[in-house]
User: What shape does this take?
Amino acid sequence: MEVRKSDGSYEQYDKRKLTNVIKKVYKGAEIESTPEIVNSIISSLYLYDGILCSSIRKQLEERFEEINPKLLNVYRAVKNKEIEDEHFVEAKKAFIERYKGTSNTADATIDDNSNVGTRNIAVINSEIHKPDNLLISRSMVMDKLKELYPDFNPKNYIKDLKNHIIYKNDENSFAGAISPYCVSITMYPFLTSGLKNLGGLSAAPKNIDSFCGMFCNLIFAISSQFAGAVAASEFLCFFSFYAEKEWGKDFYKRADEVITVGTSREKTIRNQIHQYFQQVVYTINQPAAARGFQSAFVNFSYFDKDFFDGMFGNFYFPDGTKLNWESVKWLQKEFMTWFNAERLKCILTFPVESVTLLYKDGKFQDEDMFDFVCEEYAQGHSFFTYISDSVDSLSSCCRLKNKLQTKEFNFTNGNIGVMTGSKSVISFNLSRIIQDWYCNEYKIERGTKPTDKFDETKYDSLKKYMIKILERVYKYHTAYNELLWDMYNANLLPVYSAGFIDLNKQYLTLGLNGLNQAAEFLGIECNDNPEYSKFCQEIFGLFKEQNELHKVKDGPHKLTFNSEQVPAESLAVKNYNWDAEDGYWVPDDTNLYASYVYKPNDDTTSVLEKIRLMGANYVGDYLDGGIPPVIPLRNYHAGIN
Assistant: This one.
């Protein structure tokens, strides 16, 4: 006898399947079953050749309801679970087939912002579970919200995410669902314990060879436990320590000295250092198995003399050696020059570089470093320059402006101000939020731009509206922070327990996207004008003010918030598309929301005007987490003119 399945195919009738189903239902209902009971149910069914599966299911439902309604409920739950499992598996299989049929990794993956350059089964293995990771993460945050705020509706979190007024960055990265975002580490524990406290076997590096090799392993070990970037601001500082051990304290003065003996190929100190640079850079740009075949996102920092003194002036290595500025300065220049030239041979994404310069009293304090930076830009080098009037903040991890909580060095644990970063990032769609506010406040239809001129009297109403959203987001961040502490207390965050970073020293970041579009919706032009300056100051200032109000300094779990114009590489496109699909006003001169104060696609904005738009009248101290301006110089001469 054959049974016809729902897809039209046939299979042989198997009494054992019915027997197992009935036993499973009785067990689930906590009712005892006997072989006699099972056989009596089966014998009561009307079975014939070609019978539909659905007909058998319907007859079983009737029998279970007659015997005990509890059996019927369990049976329906079992069948629903089977259907859900079938749909789950079919969706995963469809993803695999879609992935196999695409030529571009970004188009094929769930995360179109991955650092992936090839298609392979390692990427599939990572990407296929990301929708599940997202659901788990949201459920965990909602559970923690219930625990922390009994009177708050945790469904607001899902509502805000689905309404696309906020976006949880890298929400789906980890199967464990909860992970810290990005980090700037201190490498001091690496000097004393190597990788042992991270679960590795290697003890502290003894020479420059082991230092470079183990540094690469350190990056992979740490990046595997973070959703975003890893900044190693001290790499060249610590490289100098081992270089001095290898070739003497004045090695940089003897860079062209031949160090090979009895070989046909001469090698100088400079040649050897370049080989170490090559080893490190090419290794960190390789795919990492623990990151779904993505490369690690790595940041390096360079310092001028004043920043170096402020950050490392009292720094001592474990053997009592003091850090040597002249050695570090030479290595910084050598690495930047080498890296710029090496990029002509191969596309090297990482490290992302940031130079810190102190600017006071109308001039750069370290003129030598300033001149070198200008020369590197003239040579086509691409890097970030962080300019500050005081050594109280650092730019490294994801180009954040991180207010340093300490610059003092502690010999016990190597604790200095480079320990920072963001443990969680939630980004705001400013364009959608401001359009929602205006349409609700002034009763206009969604997608319709205001016809009247925006005036300053409206800011109070706007800020009250935005504060209500901010109040919810601070709760979401706090819940996520507590989940991270749960992980830490369960000994699942060894990077923290090993002393590379401190959970209390990282920020909970509020990302911003859609600033230009929000201003344009209100009729404000995004160029150097007082009206736009006021708009930026009001928006950025509101976030800074609320961040300070919600800071928690006391207790074991401190809360520090900052706000940043996030790079939003893929979010910029998503926000635009979501807004367009939902009937919001979107500009017709672009297809994404950039995260700059200036409009990057506006050719009428000169280079100098773009720089002014990133300056004190627009960003200044109003945006406490910073902004990463990228200013192409292809129209440089036109901009100057």
About this structure: Residues 69-100 form the longest helix (32 residues).
